[in-house]
Inverse folding.
């Protein structure tokens, strides 16, 4: 690991939103083996000496929560790192930038008036924090990857750190995303990005007392052209980002890279 303060993991889970993000990593797995379970493919082995399990989350909070639970309960993961893409919500969070989450909330959870808006019943809170040390190591890996000029097509990409909002909806409209931001702000939440899984995985990790960190590359601005920008971006760059950043996090030179 790049950060010497990180403990060695029994098995680090790399959970990705997209199959493309994992292709290059799976190719380089040592002692590689694949297990099919609950309709999902789990890849086990080591990367640069670190025992890992890789799989894709599937889309949406329920699917992601099931996948995260399986990673922990069935495959012995003792930490989860998430890679994926997100829509930019915060001012200055542009396509090609990367957000490392400080915490997550579910923007579509509303049990009011029984509980305050966004609060998760039984937890007494709406926000689930990521692990500070693991997140710091991930942010350093992102910085190092960005310094290598990962995304020439998008100008100087920036790293942001803060709140990410998750919900079971692809946010695809300027009016909708402005409305979402206004509602969150009214409750005191300033979200940088919107996606569909992170808060669920953060809650599963909180339940198990395990470290969680997440990075999201901004594929669109959650506006009227989000679906077009998303498709283009995912194909063109998302996989390159995720792979480079994971190698950085593991403290191993990326195979095949000069
Ligand atoms: N993931 C990437 N872009 C997104 C968007 N606009 N809404 C929800 N999830 C996303």
């Amino acid at each position: 690991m790049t950060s010497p303060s990180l403990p060695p993991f029994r098995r680090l889970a790399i959970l990705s939103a997209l199959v493309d993000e994992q292709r290059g990593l799976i190719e380089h797995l040592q002692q590689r083996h694949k297990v099919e379970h609950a309709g999902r493919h789990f890849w086990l082995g080591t990367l640069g000496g670190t025992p890992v399990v890789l799989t894709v989350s599937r889309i949406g909070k329920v699917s992601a929560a099931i996948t995260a639970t399986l990673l922990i309960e069935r495959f012995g993961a003792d930490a989860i790192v998430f890679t994926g893409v997100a829509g930019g919500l915060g001012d200055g969070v542009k396509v090609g930038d990367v957000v490392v989450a400080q915490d997550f909330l579910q923007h579509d959870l509303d049990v009011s008036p029984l509980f305050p808006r966004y609060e998760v019943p039984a937890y007494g809170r709406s926000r689930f924090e990521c692990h500070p040390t693991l997140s710091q190591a991930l942010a350093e890996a992102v910085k190092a990857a960005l310094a290598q000029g990962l995304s020439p097509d998008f100008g100087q990409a920036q790293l942001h750190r803060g709140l990410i909002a998750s919900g079971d909806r692809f946010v695809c409209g300027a009016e909708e995303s402005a409305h979402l931001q206004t509602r969150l702000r009214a409750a005191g939440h300033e979200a940088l990005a919107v996606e569909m899984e992170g808060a669920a995985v953060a809650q599963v990790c909180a339940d198990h007392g395990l470290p969680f960190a997440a990075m999201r590359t901004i594929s669109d601005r959650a506006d009227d052209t989000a679906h077009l920008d998303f498709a283009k971006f995912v194909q063109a760059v998302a996989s390159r980002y995720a792979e480079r950043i994971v190698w950085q996090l593991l403290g191993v030179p990326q195979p095949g890279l000069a």
